[in-house]
Design brief:
By secondary structure, the chain is an alpha/beta fold. 41% of the residues lie in helices and 15% in strands. α1 packs parallel to α10, α2 crosses α10 and α6 crosses α10. The chain binds NADP nicotinamide-adenine-dinucleotide phosphate (NAP). NADP nicotinamide-adenine-dinucleotide phosphate binds next to α10.
């Protein structure tokens, strides 16, 4: 029995963020400072932590970032007006509206109001469409980070079977399209998949993006498979854990991402990459 190699999201992030910092310095020398606006409406405690981390990561890499916090009573029209102002702000290259938004605001409408040129979260339908047809655009940060993790271990997806568990617009579906673009044969599983184990046992690569502990256990994994764990859950002791039974699956897989320290840091890293690229694109 072998133990899987860890794909260390913190180490890879450090490397990629150093590259972002160097490219940012080069852009600044040409008079352009990449700028990210993070918009938060309301007091959701998890969202507050996420936005703080995103702003701090920007600052650490030398990017300009602004955090715009608004009261939960903000109206949809007020938020749309704010997005419009940011679309027209030349110091801002990327706009991120933290989800979830309060129930009285239509999140789709707000995301669609972001200029696709500044959609660094990759959630706009124009970004989703660009990914689908293989045109330049912004890729959603979490699946993009997963692709970088596969690249970091030199993994060629050509001819491999990838199984994605979860079909959300922000993780599962874009993940499947990215894997397909790299010539994997892709299966997408979800809550109506009758026999998940029968699917995952065929996989060379498994991406778990469900949000439930132990969705993937050792008996569901083909020996030597690569396992990426996107899930973020709490165990009985309140500690952060993923969707994958890490102890068991790491005895079967060839490579595995830990939680914490896996996909999570990569998500923020790819946000920095997208923001830098937005600024670089505008400058050319
Ligand atoms: P989501 O929108 O709730 O989607 C979950 C997906 O899992 C759905 O497609 C659902 O199927 C499917 N599912 C639910 N139960 C299942 C089961 N028993 N077997 C197979 N599929 C099942 O969640 P999300 O936004 O994609 O996020 C997924 C997880 O990733 C969450 O834990 C979230 O916190 C985490 N996440 C982490 C990061 C990061 O940076 N690390 C970023 C984003 C999300 P249906 O479509 O049929 O309902």
């Amino acid at each position: 029995m072998t133990t899987a190699q860890l794909i260390d999201g913190n180490a890879l992030s450090k490397q990629l963020r150093e590259d972002v910092a160097a490219r940012t310095t080069a852009l600044k020398a040409r008079g352009i400072t990449p700028g990210l606006a993070v918009v938060l409406v309301g007091e959701n405690p998890a969202s507050q932590v996420y936005v703080r981390n995103k702003v701090k990561a920007c600052q650490d890499a030398g990017l300009h970032s602004v955090l715009e916090k608004f009261d939960v009573s903000m109206t949809e029209a007020e938020l749309l007006a704010r997005v419009d102002a940011l679309n027209n702000d030349p110091t801002i290259h990327g706009i991120l509206v933290q989800l979830p938004l309060p129930a009285h605001i239509d999140a789709h409408k707000v995301i669609e109001a972001i200029s696709p040129a500044k959609d660094v979260d990759g959630f706009h339908v124009a970004s989703a469409g660009a990914l689908m047809v293989g045109r330049p655009g912004f890729w959603p940060c979490t699946p993009y980070g997963c692709m970088k993790m596969l690249e970091s271990i030199g993994y060629s997806l050509r001819g491999k079977h990838a199984v994605v568990i979860g079909r959300s617009n922000i993780v599962g579906k874009p993940m499947a399209l990215m894997l397909l673009q790299q010539n994997a044969t892709v299966t997408i599983c979800h809550s109506a998949t009758p026999d998940l184990k029968a699917m995952t046992l065929q996989a060379d690569v498994i991406v778990a993006a469900v949000g439930k502990r132990n969705v993937l256990t050792a008996d569901m994994v083909k020996p030597g498979a690569v396992v990426l764990d996107v899930g973020m859950n709490r165990n009985d002791e309140g500690k952060l854990c993923g969707d994958v039974d890490f102890a068991g699956v790491s005895q079967v897989a060839s490579h595995i991402t830990p939680v914490p320290g896996g996909v999570g840091p990569m998500t923020i890293t790819m946000l920095l990459v997208n923001t830098l690229e937005a600024a670089e694109r505008e400058s050319t």
